[in-house]
Task: inverse folding
């Protein structure tokens, strides 16, 4: 949220009497969110709330409150802040980043607080840390974090080393971590968290970080501090790009027809399958859904899969309720922000013609059999230039457009549902074969089912 202005909680306000929202204690979660330049004429530049709150993978920058809580004001919370970044938030009184008035616990883990400025107020008589102000008998637990300290806080685990953000110039703020940042690989393992603010996989162990005698990192995990996980090794070399846990999500070609069984497929992407939280149990839980650009979502179910280097296949039959234009989304059940989506495709009811693998797909009436058709999924069929025949070679539903003339001005589109042979149900199904051009060398053909030459 950017540039919101209110009297309390510039972007979000809830549960605090007198601020125009329902009073009482509430609970909510903030994740994968960015709050920049929000303003409050009273308390909580970005958030003002009462009750239980969990914040993770979020960024708060340049928010301001006239009185307390430059980024966040919390009233009697049971709060946790995990892998979040607070930068250059200000308050006229206490808590440039956070002001908490509480008797409950307040846990900060793997987070960065840098250049937050607030006044010297609070019932405890001092601004405890850079931008943090706790009043009452708050049970504070800070671990594996970076805070530019103004006054010490015994018993808490943090450092005041510069986190070395990629760019802190006013014109081009970039809170990814510089390759030499002390925040890299020095965080604490969070059992349920597999993503950063971008949805990039977390953690990524950088090979040149400190290690013990067994060549394992000296800390208890490879988690980074802050909202961004440094991932140059896997995401790319242009200053740390995002990388996902999954890849190659698909259910067929650009068209899927209702009433036919398909396989929802995806593969793991390194380094995700080597994460001890995945590798050691040897399985993980995912949720599969259809999602649309307008925000619509239809859940297709939850599944437990055994880790496999060959990928995953979940059989599914789409129905009338799924008709539309969608993307498939595969997300980790413990951290739905770690997900990948497929290319856009359509689900429709159509009269589809079934073909078994290796079967000759004959042109419809009116089409010129000598004109090579256009196949929506190019890998679904093989066109023999010797025989001018089209063969089914990949299990998928695809649109095949035949033509009635050499100039391809008279289209004859058909829907082909290509699947595995089932001679018990369809006696006319052929044996699975591979069609190759007559001039191909036998030694260049793959091992496997019988081979026949095109005739």
Result:
């Amino acid at each position: 949220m950017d540039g919101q202005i209110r009297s309390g909680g510039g972007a979000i306000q809830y549960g605090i009497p007198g601020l125009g929202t329902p009073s009482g204690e509430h609970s909510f979660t903030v994740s994968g969110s960015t709050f920049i330049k929000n303003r409050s004429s009273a308390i909580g530049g970005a958030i003002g709330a009462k009750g239980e709150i969990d914040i993770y993978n979020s960024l708060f920058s340049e928010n301001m409150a006239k009185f307390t809580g430059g980024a966040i004001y919390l009233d009697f919370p049971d709060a946790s802040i995990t892998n979040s970044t607070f930068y250059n938030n200000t308050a006229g009184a206490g808590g440039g980043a956070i002001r908490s008035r509480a008797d409950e616990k307040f846990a900060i883990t793997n987070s960065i607080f840098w250049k937050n400025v607030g006044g010297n107020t609070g019932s405890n008589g001092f601004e405890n840390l850079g931008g943090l102000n706790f009043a009452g008998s708050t049970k504070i637990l800070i671990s594996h974090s970076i805070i530019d300290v103004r006054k010490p806080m015994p018993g808490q685990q943090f450092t005041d080393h510069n986190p070395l953000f990629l760019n802190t110039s006013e014109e081009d703020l970039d809170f990814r971590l510089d390759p030499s940042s002390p925040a890299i690989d020095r965080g604490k393992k969070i059992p349920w968290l597999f993503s950063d603010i971008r949805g990039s996989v977390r953690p990524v162990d950088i090979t040149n970080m400190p290690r013990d005698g067994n060549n394992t990192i000296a800390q208890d995990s490879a988690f980074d501090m802050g909202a961004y996980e440094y991932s140059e090794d896997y995401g790319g070399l242009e200053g740390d790009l995002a990388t996902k846990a999954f890849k190659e999500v698909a259910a067929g070609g650009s068209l899927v027809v209702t009433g036919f069984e398909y396989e929802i497929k995806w593969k793991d992407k390194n380094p995700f399958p080597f994460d001890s939280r995945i590798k050691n149990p040897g399985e993980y839980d995912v949720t599969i859904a259809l999602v649309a650009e307008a925000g619509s979502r239809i859940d297709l179910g939850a599944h437990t899969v055994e880790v496999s280097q060959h990928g995953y296949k979940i059989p599914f039959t789409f129905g009338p309720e799924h008709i539309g234009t969608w993307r498939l989304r595969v997300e980790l059940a413990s951290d739905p922000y770690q997900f990948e989506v497929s290319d856009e495709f359509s689900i429709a009811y159509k009269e589809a013609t079934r073909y078994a693998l290796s079967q000759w797909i004959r042109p419809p009436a009116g089409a010129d059999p000598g004109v090579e058709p256009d196949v929506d999924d190019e890998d679904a069929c093989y066109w023999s230039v010797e025989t001018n025949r089209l063969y089914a070679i990949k299990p998928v539903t695809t649109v095949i457009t035949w033509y009635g003339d050499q100039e391809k001005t008279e289209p004859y589109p058909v829907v082909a549902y290509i699947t595995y042979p089932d001679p018990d149900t369809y006696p006319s199904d052929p044996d699975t074969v591979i069609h190759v051009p007559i001039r191909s060398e036998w030694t260049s053909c793959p091992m496997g089912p019988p081979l026949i030459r095109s005739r």
In short: The first strand starts at residue 5 and ends at 8. Residues 1-242 form one domain. The first helix runs from residue 232 to 235.
